[in-house]
Each structure stands twice: as structure tokens, then as C-alpha cells.
Amino acid sequence: MSKTTSTKLERTISRTLFFYFIRDISFAFLVSFLFFFSVFFVNQLLLMAQQILTKRVPLHQVALLVFYAMPQIIALSTPFAALMGILITIGRMSSDNEILIILASGLSYRMIFIPALIFGLIISIFSFLANDILLPAGQIEFRRLYREIVFSNPALELQENSVKRFRDTTIVTGPVEGTGLSNIIILDRTSTGERRLIMARYAMLRDGGADGLSLDLSYAFIHSAKEIVRSDYDFATADFLRYWIPQDDLIQALTSISPDQMSARDLHRDIGIKAVALAGRLHEQYGQTLAGALNLEESLRIGPGNFEWNRRERNLETFMSEQQATIALRRDRTLQLFRLEFNRKFSVPFASLCFVFLAVSLGLMAKKSGQTVGFIFSIIISVIYWTMLMGGQTIGIRMGYSPFLSIWMPNILSLFIGLILFLNRIRK
After folding, report:
1. Residue 10's pLDDT band (cuts 50, 70, 90)
2. 85-118: per-residue pLDDT in tens?
């Protein structure tokens, strides 16, 4: 009878203890959320101060920009707050011997783990909704307001030591000198399709109204070359040159929708469309490369004394150009960026669920000062997780690694280490 009663107690989850856990974890979560929210909020203000406040943008517009950035701050704060909330709660209960009392009363570790798991699942769902619904809406409004600010203050578009890309133009700027920029480089294409490089010692940015933005370049050097025959080029110098960035290009750069402004459904749809389009372009490019290779082979095989032999150098340049175009197309990062962001839409919110195993295991290890230990562990884990996430995203973009592994690796490691520690704790 005693054995049966003991087994029953081990399999029973106390309703009172369940809500006691949920209440304590919720309170710790709210405090932790305010902490992480403040950290990310201050970081956002510092970015605003660097990019916008120094340009004398009206304060009410800055406040609106911060408000539209709130969903992003909430989405980032929630997983780390869940980790800290659970870790602090379990750590405090462990150091106060409440966990020991629960186990001595006949209840198992499930009494500790299940409330934390349910709480982590609820937070993950909430975070995903904020990340998938509120974040895109906030980013769209942020872009819309930023576009209005740029048209009233064009100096926002070009900053020192930065790279700015428009439709067919890339502008690299150096440090600020006086009221202008020094050591500026412009890469674009001419109306005839030639590649053009413009370098200038000094540049002044001016608002051209409906015409867009203009750059008044001093001591400029211009180099233009054919796309295929690179040896066919022209160059010139000028003491003064006015370079125009059309308003259409400016509007497109500011209004183009980036992956972080899209919902998971829209991202999934666009990934499918882009994958099909890329496959088609690759098939066409492979055909052009093969045609260039065949022309080169024919000109070499036919030997001297024939008209085709005289075209061998041109055919070689054409083949090399097509081959480089194929390599560049295969390394196209646009689709990779979309796939990385799609995985990020799920990995960051559901990090709360993966953190449960790690937080419960580490919290049970606390012998004294459980809240302090939980706070310190939470900060360390958050920094490591964020570093791995940013590193994985960078590796995924630059090296083309699997988007899933690049983004989900921090979650997988957290879950794996947490499970090992939890199973080891149960066996003890």
C-alpha cells in the first residue's frame, strides 16, 4: 500500500506547486524582460544618436522611429528574459532548499520541469507572433518615416566610412572633412553598359529636389571599361564633376522590402520564387558559358591561317567573362539572405523553449545565492548565444553554409547541453 501510494505521488503534479512555479517564473521574467529591454533600448538610442540625432532631425520624428523599432527590441529581449527568469527562479528555490522539500515529499523532477517547459512554450509562441507580425509592420513604418526624413535631410543617406548601394550604383565614402566627404569612390554602369569607376578627393552632398541627390566631386578620376573586353577602356580627370543619384534610384533603395520586413509566409513564398528564378538564370548562363567554350575550342582547333584563328583572343575573353558571370551567379547571396532570415524567424523566438533545459539544469546546481548565480549565468549564456547567432549569420552569408545550421546551431547546442545536464542531474 505504501509503495503504491509512493508511486502515485511521484507521478502526480501538484496544482498548487504548478501555479506557484508559474507565478514566480512570470515575476522573474517580467523583471528580466525590463532589464534586457533597457539594454537593447539604450543600444537603439545610441544608434539613433549616431545616425540621426547628429543630423538635427526633429525630436518627434526620432521618437516615432524609436517607437517603430519597439517590436524588434521586444522580439530580441523575450528569449533572454525567459532564460533569466527560469534560471533565477529555479536557482532561488534550489538555494532555499525548496527543490529538496519538493523531492522529499514524493514528487519528481517533472514537478519542476513541466511548468518551466509550458512557460517556455508560451513565451516562444508570443515571441514568434511579435517577430512575425509586429516586427515587419514596425520595420515598414520605420522605413516609411526614414524615407520622409531623408528627403528633407539628404545628408542622412551618405555617412563617413560607409558603403551605400542604390540600384546600379555603389558609393564608398571616407572620413568627413569640414562639411563634405573625402576619398570617395563610386562604382556604377554607364548608359551603354560599361563599368565605371569614379574616385574623388573631396565631395559635397546636395539636395537636388525632384531630381534626387547630387555629389559635387573635386579632383576626380574617371575610368570606364567594356564588360567583355577589359583592355578596351577610357579614363579622364576633372577638377570638378557633378554626379547625380536619381530620385527613382533613391526611392527604390529606401522602399525596397528587405527580408526582416516580411512575415514567415511571405518569406517562404519569395524563397520559392527566387529559387526557381535562380535555377532558370543558371541554366541560361551555363548555356552561354558552354557556347563560349565551344567557340574558343573551334578557333583553336582550326589553326593559323583562318579568320576564326584571329578571333581566338576575343573568344577567350568572352569565355572567361561568361565563366566569371556563372561563378558570380552561383554565389548570389540574395537567396541565401532570405533563407537565413526565414530560419531566424523561428530560431530566435523558440530559443526560449531550448533555454528551458539549460536554465532548469543550471538552476538546480545552485547551492547558495541562487538569484545572483542565475543572473550571472544568464548574462554569460546570452552573450555566447548572441555571438554565435551573429557569427553563424556572417558565416552563412560569406561562405554559403547551410542556413539552417548557421542560424539554429546556438539553439541546438543549448538544447543538447541542457539535456545532458538535466539527465545527469536526474541520475544523481
Report:
1. very low
2. 999 999 888 888 888 888 888 788 888 888 999 9
Query: Cell for 99?
Result: 527543490
Q: What is the pLDDT of residues 267-315, one digit of tens each?
A: 888 888 888 888 888 888 888 888 888 877 777 776 666 666 667 777 7
Which residue in the block uniquely carries the three cell numbers 511579435? Answer: 130
Tens digits of residue pLDDT in 164-191: 777 678 888 888 665 577 888 888 877 6
Please report the pLDDT score of residue 85 as a whole number. 93
A 10 A CB-CB count for 394 gives 12
Q: Are 83 and 360 in contact (CB under 8 A)?
A: no
pLDDT of 370 higher than 60? yes
Mean pLDDT of 344-373: 86
Q: Which residues contact 179 (CB under 8 A, 6 or more apart)?
A: 204
The 3-class secondary structure across the chain, one letter per residue, is CHHHHHHHHHHCCCHHHHHHHHHHHHHHHHHHHHHHHHHHHHHHHHHHHHHCHHHCCCHHHHHHHHHHCHHHHHHHHHHHHHHHHHHHHHHHHHHCCHHHHHHHCCCCCHHHHHHHHHHHHHHHHHHHHHHHHHHHHHHHHHHHHHHHHHHHCHHHCCCCCCEEECCCCEEECCCEECCEEEEEEEEEECCCCCEEEEEEEEEEEEECHHHEEEEEEEEEEEEEECCCCCCCEEEEEEEEEEEEEEHHHHHHHHHCCCHHHCCHHHHHHHHHHHHHHHHHHHHHHHHHHHHHHHHHHHHHHHCCCCHHHHCHHHHHHHHHHHHHHHHHHHCCCHHHHHHHHHHHHHHCCCHHHHHHHHHHHHHHCCCCCHHHHHHHHHHHHHHHHHHHHHHHHHHHHHHCCCHHHHHHHHHHHHHHHHHHHHHHHHHC
